[in-house]
Every structure is written in C-alpha cells, then in structure tokens.
Amino acid sequence: MANRGPIITKRLAISKANTQMIAVVGVASFVAVFCLVASKAVWSQYQYQARVTDVKTKALTQLQQNITAFNSLSSSYDSFDGQDKNIIGGSRTGTGNNDGSNAQIILDALPPSYDFPALTSSLEKILTNGSFTVSSITGTDDQINQQTNVSSNSPQPVPMPFAFTVTNANYTSVQALMDTLQQSIRPIPVDTIELSGGVNNMTLAATAHTYYQPATSLNITEKVVK
Predict the structure, then answer these.
(1) CA 203, chain centre distance (Å)
(2) What is the average pLDDT across 209-219?
C-alpha cells in the first residue's frame, strides 16, 4: 500500500492556506467597508460644519451691519429729539399745546395702542377750547377686537372713526375748528360736515377719523442647520 502521508499533509497545508486567504480577504473587505462608511460619515460631517460656518458668517456680517445701523439711528434720534424747537414750532421744554420733544410728539401723533376714551377726551378738549358746546361725541369702542393688535414686525396705521356734534357755531368758528383739527398733533382727517341752523347759531355735525399704530416688535429667532 502506497504511503499517503505526504498527500494528506499537502492537503492540510492547502486547506490551511485557503482558510488564511479567506480570513485575510474577509478582514480586508471589512476594513474596506469600514473605511468607506467612515469616509462618508466624515464627509457628511465636513459638509455640515461647512454649512454651519457659512450661516454663522452670514449672521456675524448681519450683526455687524445691525450694530452700525443702530449707532447711526441712535445718533440721528438724539439729534432729532434734542432740537429746542420741535417739528410743529413749539418749545421742547414748554408746556403749551404745541410744546414737547419731537419724540413725544410722534408718540402723540400715532399712539402705540388703541384707546378710544383717550381720543374722545382729547377731542372734547379741542372743541371746548374753541368755545363750542359739545352735544355728542360718538364712535364704536373697538377695544376688545383691537386688544390683540399690540405689536407687529411691520405695523401699519389703524383707523379710528368717530363723529361729533357741536352747537353755538358760526362760519368763522367752523373754519377755525377745521384749521385746528388740521394742525393737531394727532392726524384727524374730516370725512363729512353738515351745518344746520342760523348764521350765528349753527349746529355742526361731522364725521372724521384718526389713527393709532401698533408698536414694532423685534423677534429674535433661531435657525436649525440641517
């Protein structure tokens, strides 16, 4: 019987070599796949960080522009509000009807909130100072509907219609009243006028409107970079 020892030994060596080869190929494949996955993750992270950096750079640029604009606005505001003679010819430090700082005049012209009782009080004062007898001041108090309209990113003037009736009027006093309303700090456009009665004892019924403008809100937002 022939000696089969060398054949068996050779087969064992081949089998062992095949096993080692499979192991090496398996390890190499694992390493290759791991490197691909890791490379993809690193590349995705790099792209994400690049987007974050780009957004941060834009935010920083915008912040720098805002600071410059703020400084310019602050300087302009101080110059505007510090004028001794205000924009309607009154004194900044006086107590007359046309006196007050420019900033206060602007606030009086367009109040930041709806206040119909304050409007009627101001109108009654104007009419009384004109020696009129006030019969009525009417309008719709829309406080409930307007109470949510307190601020906005881009506020717009909101009209406030009203009507009033006065007696003890004549053509001269009516003209003076119209001039007073036109020169009022708060804009009061007159919509309709109806006159009745005698030349020196007229009744004036008018409809008009004024405005208020909600305050400007500043919203600071956050942006998620994906």
Answers:
(1) 44
(2) 83
Q: Which residue has the higher pLDDT, 83 or 184?
A: 83
- pLDDT above 80 (res 16): no
Contact yes or no for 212/115 (Cβ under 8 A)? yes
Higher per-residue confidence, 35 vs 129: 129
31: pLDDT strictly greater than 80:
no
Identify whether the C-beta of residue 122 lies closer than 8 Å to the C-beta of residue 97.
Answer: no
Is residue 89 located within the same domain as residue 162?
A: no
Q: State how far the Cα of 27 lies from the Cα of 31, in Å rounded to an integer.
A: 6
| The two structure tokens encoding residue 146 | 């307007």
Do 76 and 129 belong to one domain? Answer: no
Q: What is the pLDDT of residues 34-45, one digit of tens each?
A: 777 777 777 777
Please report which helix (H) or strand (E) contains residue 138, including its range. Answer: strand 133-138
For residues 212 and 110, the answer to whether their CB atoms sit within 8 Å is: yes
Share of residues in the chain with pLDDT > 70 (%)? 89
Provide the phi-psi class of 114: left if phi over 0, else alpha when psi is between -120 and 50, else beta: beta
Beta bridge mates, 202:
169, 197
CATH number at residue 190: 3.30.70.60
Q: How many domains does the chain have?
A: 3
In this structure, the answer to whether residues 106 and 36 fall within a common structural domain is no
**Which range marks the domain in which residue 189 is found?**
112-216
- Whether 222 is in a domain gets the answer no
